[in-house]
Amino acid sequence: MFKVPNVSNMPNISQWTRYLAYIYALFPLSDYLIRHMLGLSTLAALWDKGLLFILAGSALLFHFDKTKWHALMHTLKWPLILWIGLGIAHLFLDLPNFAASFDGFRAVYFYMLAALIGLFLFDDEASSRRLLDLLLAVATLAAIVGIGQYIVGVDVPASWTDVSEKTSRRAFSFVVSPNVFGSYMALFTPIAAGLLLISKTSWGRLYYSISFFLLGAGLILSASRGAWLALALSALVTAFMLRRIYALALSSVFVLLTAIIPPIRRRILALISPTYWEKSGSDGRIARWTRAYHEMRFDPFFGKGLGHYGGATGQRYFGTTYVDSYYFKTLAETGLVGLGLLLYLLLTLLVALWQKTLSQRNRSTKILTISLVTGLTAVLLHNAVENIFEVPFMNAYFWLIVGLTFSMLWRGEDPAVRFTEDAPSKDTPSGHHQSSSPIQPSSLMQPPGQNHNMPPATQLKAKVNGHA
């Protein structure tokens, strides 16, 4: 009798799936080559979606890890259920314009599948580092191209230059938009710093130092104030989480950089000029945010509907303009309920990642995940003044790195004892649970097993296993 083969034991399936994931990691470069160099617009619109669907399906079918899945669901179960449930409900709120609603749903939710790639396909330290190195290499190449554009004086469209400024030179690389390029650099600059700090070879430290410098230069030359401020605020949050004095020192550094670097000084001065605010209030960001707010007022709870306002889908189907804020776009399309659920999901995600990161005993994992969470936070902050999640590769990269961070933080844990910290401890008086306090920055240099902030039960287990 014919016997169905056990696909979980198919040879090299993990290796081949990772090769496809590495191709997907080239997203912005591949998309530019297909769309702008080869002119294959139909292929450009489909290749990334098809590949993501294959990779997400493979991750669930062939690489599913119950431990990591439980970690994800324990952290984000209800935020995900509520946010995705709202999106499904929106598909049927305007049936005459179902095509627009479906396209809007796809633009918002589809790229969240990239989290499954990072969560399940890269289940060991070596493969995770290879993926991060590849992502960083593409970002570094984008920085080199952007810096080259600025040096040779490639002009950018007038719509990307304030009327209060005289220059039209901004780096935008092969991601086409200076603001998206700036967000791209803001995402990977802290990641380069993290990889630099944990590198064990001289060549590695040299490479990551060069990469960090190029990414920082690309960020500055993008002239994206939103990206600058987003990364600066994200870095301050990180410094504050580690030690408050670090945040104060970093603030001084940012003030000094603003004073001595001409492109930053010029753009910040333009931001506070009366001309900028007058233009922004008449036909700029503030005017678009105001219109999005008024659109929400027609249906405060559920908005106009997914794909109906403020993004690419709304422009394609209804002729609306971009809002220049992903959160104002969400407010106009899904109302107060939708914006509240999105913020609930994102804030729950960040809090969970920070809590788990600060409780890490492995120095390299802690430093690297701190850099990853810093980059993710910068993107979320930049979304306040740009539609960054409207850009497919940025949306996909965000969720890919979210999944990878979860994988690194919860890798190798015993499912039977994973969430014991959430239950009352038998080792504490009166059965009250004692949560561990955040680990201090000095503990980043401590070898594993010398973290005295561990709960008593965890310390006892470590001693029994000879690790403390």
What would the keywords be for this entry?
single chain; 468 residues; mainly alpha; 19 helices; disordered C terminus
Q: What is the helix tally?
A: 19
- Please bin the fraction of helical residues: 55-70%
Our estimate of the beta-strand percent is under 5%
Number of strands: 0
Rg on CA atoms, Å? 23 Å
Mean pLDDT: 86
Shape: globular
Q: Total domains, how many? A: 1
Main sheet specs: none
Compressed to H and E, one letter per element, the order equals: HHHHHHHHHHHHHHHHHHH
How far is it from the N-terminal to the C-terminal residue, by CA?
Answer: 56 Å
Contiguous low-pLDDT stretches (5 residues minimum) are: 414-468
Class computed from helices, strands and strand pairing: mainly alpha
